[in-house]
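HUMAN: I'm a chemist; might I ask for a sequence paired with its structure tokens?

ASSISTANT:
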Amino acid sequence: MNKEELLQELEKGINAGEISREELISRLSLTPSAGREISATPKDSTHFSMTKMLYVLGAAIVVIGIIIFVYQVWDDLGSLGRISVTLGLGLLFTVIGSVLLKSKPENQTIGSVFHAIGGLLVPGGAVVALSELNVDMVSVWPIAITFGAIFVFYLLLNFAHRSSVLTFFAIANGTAFIYLLVEAMIDGPFYRHEDLYAYLTMVVGASYLLLAHAFRGGWNNKLVGILYFFGSAGFLGAAFSRVFDSVPWQMVYFLLVIGGLFLSAYTKSRAILVVSTCFLLAHVSYITGEYFADSVGWPVALVILGFIFIGLGYVSININKKYIAK
């Protein structure tokens, strides 16, 4: 008896009432509980999503409450009190987060929440401590060194706990340290060195992209989308600031944004795709207004620009369908 004949015999038996569907499912070990388990999975994921959302909301409320409380009692506090309610609280929450991560490794969310609260308070608290200790901040060096120390602090914590939240604060404080270090090393305010900061931002943006690529599939995978977005936005945004009144940059920038589109397909990143498309539209708009508005008339230029936008939107959607949304 081949497979087709066997299936026909089973169908006849079920139709004749000789065997029920439940008996067949039970005999084949296809219990209905499997279906219930499958259907329960979305509920569990919804539950976990709601839990994480409540954690984030609770952390935000705690931070806002602390800020409002400190603002209300700030004038009544002495130097020690001001340091305690800023840097002290931040370090306290950080310690609690570390203890929870160590004691409950199976549930790192609650520990990460306390680390998030601490991470928001520690940098500001460190600056308050410098001010209350009467450290001369005419130079940027004290603040730069402080953020460098915070960066190292979060690096060490991250090596100990391997948490994406700690990685985020290490990257954030490290970025602040880089900008402050450059500010301390050069003479004059930052707006006199626009070129330097533009190229620095491009380097930082490229570093974010490399970090995102390195984090894919690892325990920092949650940061990949954020790093792709800020990395591409920083790199292309800083490069776009070089476009104005610079013909070489105007030509090079087309290559950069097209490279961003190819990179979005390679990395399967919607963030890079959206950012690259937006900056490509901005660049095309600038080029159209700069070179074609007076020659063919602004209304005609707008019509051409509109069709270009439609074409770029079509290309962007196709890149998303073919290479990203798979």
Summary: The CA atoms of residues 298 and 309 lie 16 Å apart. Confidence is low (pLDDT under 50) at residues 30-48. The chain has twelve helices and no strands. The chain has two domains: 77-185, 191-326.
